[in-house]
Design a protein that fits this description.
By secondary structure, the protein is mainly beta. It has one domain. It is 5% helix and 37% strand. Strands 6-5-4-7-8 form a five-stranded antiparallel β-sheet. Strands 2-1-3 form a three-stranded antiparallel β-sheet. The protein is globular, with a radius of gyration of 15 Å. It starts with 18 loop residues before the first helix and ends with a strand. Bound molecules: zinc ion.
């Protein structure tokens, strides 16, 4: 499986990180970590920009993380017009790892506050497509 089943609109078909989508199907949101310098990456990078001969390994993002910033989108971009309103956010998940994701629509907008605990969870979209979102930890 590749990225053709990822997200509502997929911009990538060929990628060295295609296993990311397989992990989503298994119920896991994964990042990568450089075996040489230990830097963690999300979205996953298969090559560490700091280590020319680096090898990376897959690491599950378990959390919980902490909400850093968020914004509610009222007018979605092309392909997402029908989704609005939805809330996008950045969460911090330890070791400086920042994750950008939507926040679940199950969390009411008035409940969303910086510092709240989040987990990042695989979700199924229509048409057997896969993505991930922040849910309450
Ligand atoms: Zn590295």
């Amino acid at each position: 499986m590749g990225f053709e089943t990822f997200g509502k609109v997929s911009f990538t078909s060929e990628t060295k990180a295609a296993a990311f989508v397989d992990y989503l199907a298994q119920g896991k949101v994964m990042g990568t970590r450089c075996k040489a310098c230990g830097t963690a990456y999300f979205p996953p990078k298969m090559d560490c920009p700091s280590c020319p001969d680096s090898e990376t390994e897959w690491v599950e993002i378990t959390g919980p993380g902490k909400l850093i910033a968020y914004s509610t989108v009222h007018y979605g971009p092309a392909g997402f017009e029908d989704d609005a309103p939805y809330t996008i956010a950045v969460g911090e998940f330890g070791n400086g790892l920042h994750i950008f994701s939507r926040i679940s629509k199950d969390i009411k907008v008035e409940e969303i506050k910086p510092g709240m605990k989040l987990k990042v969870v695989p979700i199924k979209l229509t048409g057997d497509r896969l993505s991930y979102e922040f849910q309450k930890a």
